[in-house]
Design brief:
- The chain is of the alpha/beta class.
- The chain has one domain: 3-Layer(aba) Sandwich (Rossmann fold).
- The protein is built from 5 helices and 7 strands; from the N terminus they run E-H-E-H-E-E-H-E-H-E-E-H.
- It has a 7-stranded parallel beta sheet, with helices on both faces.
- The longest helix has 16 residues.
- The chain is globular, with a radius of gyration of 14 Å.
């Protein structure tokens, strides 16, 4: 399949997650890669790094939209680092460039990405994250990715 047509799943979350959130992010990254989607994230540490590592270990493609001016800031599992120089404002770009978003834990940066996702009309799935309107709560990485794929691949379960 042509890269431009691949589903892009954003994975957002904290830079200092607990062990369970890291494990969930890693597994979600694996599942995204196994399903042939592209993982989009903020490109730094924590949830972003764990999800990117999972995707890379499963043979997937990762895109990191970075807050700073240097692509060298990306974690080692990001294939395509995009420097923005925008700081937290880059959260808008993470949401905009994702077809669907999975939020894992996180604090206010994650909340802004969820808000941008809502503004841009994106489907947002949450696991251990903000309990707010428009976030579809799930309990497992498998459920999160299945929900993310549902609208794009209706026969996928």
């Amino acid at each position: 399949m042509e890269l431009r047509k691949k589903l892009r799943i954003g994975v957002i979350g904290g830079s200092q997650p607990d062990k369970e959130s890291r494990q969930n992010a890693f597994r979600i990254g694996q599942l995204i890669a196994e399903k042939g989607a592209i993982l989009v994230c903020g490109g730094l540490s924590g949830v972003m790094e764990a999800a990117s590592r999972g995707a890379k270990e499963a043979g997937g493609l990762t895109l990191g939209i970075l807050p700073g001016n240097s692509t060298d800031d990306a974690n080692v599992y990001v294939d395509i680092p995009v420097a923005t120089g925008l700081g937290y404002a880059r959260n808008s770009l993470v949401a905009m460039n994702s077809d669907v978003i999975i939020a894992i834990s996180g604090r206010y940066g994650t909340l802004t990405e969820i808000a941008y996702g809502c503004i841009y009309g994106k489907k947002i799935i949450g696991i251990g994250t903000w309990d707010i309107e428009n976030v579809i709560k799930v309990k497992s990485p498998e459920e999160a990715v299945a929900e993310a794929l549902k609208d794009y691949f209706p026969l996928t379960s």
